[in-house]
Amino acid sequence: METAALVAPVTALEFLQDVFLLTGEGPVLEVYILKPRPKACASLSVLQHSRIHGIRPRRQAAVPAHSSCGKHKHELSSTTEPSFYDQVVFGGKAVRLVRLHVDGGHAWLEILGPLLQLQDWALDVRWLSGDKHSLLCVATAHNSALLLDLDTGTVLAQCSCLEGCLLYSALLLVHESWADTVLVGGTVFNQLVLWRPQGGEEGSDPEYKAPVERRLLGHSGVIFSISYLREKGWLASASDDRSVRVWGVGVLGGPGGKYGDSNPTCLRVLYGHQARVFSVHLSPGRVFSAGEDGACLVWDWAGGEKVVRTLKGHQAGGVRALAVSDGTSDDERWVATGGADGGVRLWRVKESGERKKMIEEAVTEKLTDLKFPGQGIPKVVCIDGKQDENVNWSKSRFVVCTDQGIVYQYSNKQWDIVWPGAPEFQSYCVMDTVSTNVKDSTAKVHLCAVGNLSGSIQVFPISHPQSGILLTGGSGKIHTLLWQEGQESVFLLASGAEGLVYRWCIEIKLNENSILALSVNPLPSFLLPPCAKRWLTAAVRLHSRSQEALWVCGDRRGSLLLFQEGSKHLEKQGDDVDVDEGLVTGTEQAKHEGGGSDGDEKSSIMEQRESKQVHNLKLQPLSCLFGVHGKQGVTSVCENQGLLYSTGRDGCVRIFRVQPTPPETCKENRKYTPGRTVENKGQLQLEVLRVQRACKGMEWLERVLFLEPEIPEEEEKVVRKGCENHEKTEKPNLTENLEVTEKEQEEESFRGEVGNAESQGKEARFAIIGFHAVHFVVWDPVRQERLLAILCGGGHRSWSLWPSHKGVWPGYGALVFIKQGAVLASQPPGEEPSWADKAGRPVGWGLREGLHGRGIGCVCRLGRIGGTRNDIQTTGNMTESGKREVEREEGLWEIVVTGGEDTTLTVLAIQPISGRIKVLSVITDHISSVRTVIAVKCPEEEDDNQPQSLSALLVSAGGRAQMQCYRLLISWDGHRLVPSCQVIQVASHRLDEQWERRRNRHKMVKMDPETRYMSVALVDKLTDRVLLALACSDGAVRLFSVSEVQHQIDLLWETFYHQRCVLSVATCSLEDGKGNRYKLLFSAATDGKIAVWHLTDTSSSISSDAPAPPIPCISIPAHQSGVNSLAVWAGKLGQQEGSCLVTVASGGDDGQLTVSIIKVQFPEDGKMSEHPISLQTNLQPPGQLQLYLQSQFHIPLAHAAPLTTLNLLSPDLVVSTSSDQRVCLWRVCSTGINHRGTLCSHVADAAGLAVWEGDLRCGMTEEEKGGKKGKMSFESKQELVVSRGKESRTELETEGKSAEVETGRRFNKEKETADEAMSREPVEAVSKTGDPLSKTSDEKSGEIAGECRNERDTDNVGRTENEVDTETGLKAGKSRRQREKTGWVLVCGQGFQLLRVTINLWSEEI
């Protein structure tokens, strides 16, 4: 087996001269270069099966000067320094020396010595600086220290402490020699102990135990991390009690090994973390701590116990590693954090000197009062020119309207009156502003609109209010005013009385006197559906190449409405001809008046035109999603990349699109449309794709902010291709529409322009703006964290956020709002925000995106996707076959979905050839952990021949008896050369929601509110629905029907046969000789029994209202305790007709692997054969499908822990995994079970497993293979080769040893020894009758293997015709060509690991 991709908790971080960042993830050491832009540059697996817990670079002064490497281009501290850097990497009981080479723009890692295995866990390792040899001081877990020679791998000296307790952390303070070393240990008894390994003359005695010189008491939990600052004489400790303590200990270590002060004192006790503190680091002006709460806190030492900054960027699970650089000349430091989610984040932090600017990003408490001096009370505040991207915060201006109708402007720290108002605008007003260009000019003008109770609307430029005009929006109250930008003009929407929304198109021109003049063209009004709160709250205009523009609006009732321009959608009253003529005349008059009329004359003309036309022309909505956002209303609607996003006060963001309406739906919609509408062949409708909820308690949402990518795609291409010639790449246009031809129909043209999610609509990464309790919050739904939080007092107030222009949000901002009659700002207007630098922004740099912060409980594969051959670039020096191979593999991505304990579903794209992992989408609809997930694809979509699009129906289930169903659309992004994903929410279901709707509830067993869905299996795929069987923790097996067309999930029946928790379900399809199909369901519970159900009649009678649940056909005892996983497949029974064999592989809590072979007799056969084994319980009546247990085999110790999951790789190969971190491959046939190989996985707590077969390729002949020995780039890569022949044996070939590795050996010798030593492991399988199936490792295992091969040959899997001898190679006169078949194994738990399994099929050539 070979590792293709790995995501594991990051447990080690270390900076190298502020130029490189070294990270440890599992056994893999990865190097990131920080300048000029952070990116990955090298990676190598160094510790085999151990997890890296520490990286210690060697000082450059100690590196030998005879290096032949040249200079590099990264501008290190000195040009005379060598271009390689040695570091020791340790973790568990393993230690290894690794060298980083730097040559020009390239960097690579090299393993220098063997893997050294210690007798105890290594907690800290330090280089001895005074010795020219490679000597290390190592602190071990049982309070001991040893001196290790890396060159020879021998222990030169060892000393233990007199207090021989267990340590959770250790810190070595070394100088030039072993005698100067001081060890600080954090004990299991919540103490810090200081002692010196070489304690004077007695230290030469091997039996000598050093006494404890200093003891620090105060913590109430174990100590996880220790840091020492020599300049100050401070020692910091991080503990399980959620605190960080700073001690004044004086000088420790150095020449002579000083112990510091005789009476050390505790200087500070820092409480700020919400969970355990894992790491601590001291710097001259700051204390850095990171913990299980996922936060890195920056404490100001001079300011007392105060957090000056909070760095958060990881999922749940906490920060497992922390590193702080030494600092640069500008007094800045790099801070890196590694999370349990596998993510790595990077920040720039000021050390000192700018305390006022170091504002905590999580909660901003300091507010600036703008000292509003005007008349009246401020009611509405807007940022002047809020959509201008070039205006920075220091030059921003605010516009405020008071209850007296007076408009003020704040600029340069002073208030000025812009518009004095009028009597009719007192006591009530609404206001909105917009920026637009002057026609035929590059100048920008900011417009302001103010409405009142009588329907009057004053529109004026803020810079020239005397050029304003007065509009009339009916005779009633103006509820809202909304501006929308057009291509050459702006649109004003005024929501008036009786559900009418008045609209105007406004242009700004320069008249003959170079004075601003407004040209107003009225547009037909929108008529909102009847409801109690009948006014508009949000609107967006969709740009289209067609003449009929679209408007998507949201109202106060929570509905989403779709309007379309054009007279054929108008509701006309009176004479149609007069109305049309009036519209044309009014338009021409407006164009004529744009020349030199003053504002008053325009106002009177506008009033006459509106009274004649606007009340007579009304646009009806084409589509209405009534109350989709609840009764509190829609707060915003916006468009991005062909998709629409709406927010409301129901705590939800809805992603939707405009779709052509099917003919059947068009007829139904016309029945409910008020007024008379003209039939349109391009009828459109709104379709909600999915719903995204904010965090718990955040119900009042205001809008969404689109986030920029943290690392641009051109940088990702540089990393992936290993070159630097793609720095200038065009960014995709966010509003770009698809090109369409003139021959396409109108509806097809619109589908390409507005948002066909399958081809053009791509969901963007966004953040959510809203109010959470008393805070204004910017929430990231993917990382589940706050990006910005400002204490404002909660909702029901006017506010404006900078920067608020359309496009991407840079990750920082400032808020202006009204509170208790005052205008407040989160930042002083004259100063830039302190986190404007992107490296210092709250979210930092994402060097590697994290996945699930907690364990991954389930996984499923959707399929494979790739680009066209033209998308993949190859180098010129490749051969044609090499180019074809790179084109084929480089563009292939495996799409998988994972569900975790953090209640999220993550859609991932994995590129096996490079190990790249990309998060496509994160779904957060579950309220509890996700336990099981399944993907259903159409038969025509199940072919993996590199498609450019995938579509699958995804069903997930888990805690709280909750099911979610989605349609996933995966497409290939030809611009970025990566897949993209669109999630469409289909339906959801919870048992407690259906309970009150049931009849005869008193006769049923009430559903436990804590019921969990444990497993799901596909029963059948029908034309209009999908049938699924679910295992439930309340002892029930339930059958559900999922209809994508009706967006509904229905419970068909349930049975409580097991009477205990059902852990797993699986299905199998059978077909007899006459073409009749049968469905079998297998369910297993905590009692160790497997029940088999015949579901053919049940699945065919789902149309009935209450189908009766079936009874099991057979019950098979398989395990002593719970059965966690099932794998079922069917095979033929030789020459016998009317029957077949079904093989059931099961794994349980007892660590046992059981294979049960069931004979199925079809009802057409009149006679039933005799069956000697009768241990099963047959419950099926005669005359129907008959099932009998034919044989059963066991592997009692298949794993050293409960077998959590197993899956079928091919018809005879089963993969199993367990919490013992072993992945085993088994050969299963009708005569027994044969073990084929084992790999120690790097994933802890394995709970999910997905396997699939890859391509079948022809390789080299055996002579060619013998003459050319392959090379492996990673020592920890292990390859499992299964050679198939009639009498062949299977051998497990690995690099490195699976047991102990001798010290002092080179890497090549380790590989050769391991290849010879690792052979097939014999496993004794016991049959149900008690006869051993494997008597000896040579005789019986060979018989079983031969019988298994004969059985396999009858199934047409891997046929061969000649004997194969895997030890000697070819037989005389024969030449065998190797055909490789690749299998993939994805193991999930605390992270995931993708393994490549290579299966060799040998064919002979004369």
UniProtKB/TrEMBL annotation:
It is found in: Cytoplasm. One of its GO terms (biological process) is tRNA methylation. PANTHER family: WD REPEAT PROTEIN, WD REPEAT-CONTAINING PROTEIN 6. The keyword Iron-sulfur does not apply. PROSITE patterns: WD_REPEATS_2 (PS50082), WD_REPEATS_REGION (PS50294). Interacts with FTSJ1; the interaction is direct, and required for 2'-O-methylation of position 34 in substrate tRNAs. Interacts with IRS4. Interacts with STK11/LKB1. The keyword tRNA processing applies. Belongs to the WD repeat WDR6 family. It comes from the Eukaryota. Together with methyltransferase FTSJ1, methylates the 2'-O-ribose of nucleotides at position 34 of the tRNA anticodon loop of substrate tRNAs. Required for the correct positioning of the substrate tRNA for methylation. Required to suppress amino acid starvation-induced autophagy. Enhances the STK11/LKB1-induced cell growth suppression activity. WD repeats lie at residues 216-247, 270-309. The lineage of its organism: Eukaryota, Metazoa, Chordata, Craniata, Vertebrata. Residues 587-610, 1262-1376 are annotated as: Disordered. One of its GO terms (cellular component) is cytoplasm. This is tRNA (34-2'-O)-methyltransferase regulator WDR6. Residues 589-610, 1262-1323, 1336-1362 have a biased composition (Basic and acidic residues). Transmembrane segments: none annotated. Keywords: Cytoplasm, Repeat, tRNA processing, WD repeat.
